[in-house]
Amino acid sequence: QVQLVESGGGLVQAGGSLRLSCAASGRTFNTYEIGWFRQAPEKAREFVARISRTGGSTYYAGSVKGRFTISRDNAKNTVYLQMNGLKPEDTAVYSCTARYNGANWAYWGQGTQVTVSS
Questions:
Q1: 61: buried, middle or exposed (CB in 10 Å: 19+, 13-18, 0-12)?
Q2: Angle at CA of residue 110, ends 67 and 87, nearest 5°
Q3: What is the chain's pLDDT, residue by residue, as a tens digit (118 residues)?
Q4: Which of 6, 28, 36, 68 sits 20 to 30 Å CA-CA off 112?
């Protein structure tokens, strides 16, 4: 079982940037696809981005494409979400998740709060 710990959230002004980190441990890290989801107050959880096991393939929600970049450093067992051009509507708790061999997203971190002011 893989363990996930997010960090890097905070308060920023609209137009600013943050980099979130997801540190993983447990089963061989490079066997897991990693995703980021977010959930705003009173809203359903929303997909943000995902990255393949080796980092060669990425996919983004339309709302963040062109502004966010997901990457991974398997030597450090860490996945990053670089967020640029932040908007107030990006305010949410961001959570990291992992799946093995194409299974369901089964492993979740505790989340990190991102707040973007106008």
A1: middle
A2: 25
A3: 789 999 999 999 999 999 999 999 876 788 899 999 999 999 999 999 999 998 999 999 999 999 999 999 988 999 999 999 999 999 999 999 999 887 899 899 999 999 999 9
A4: 28
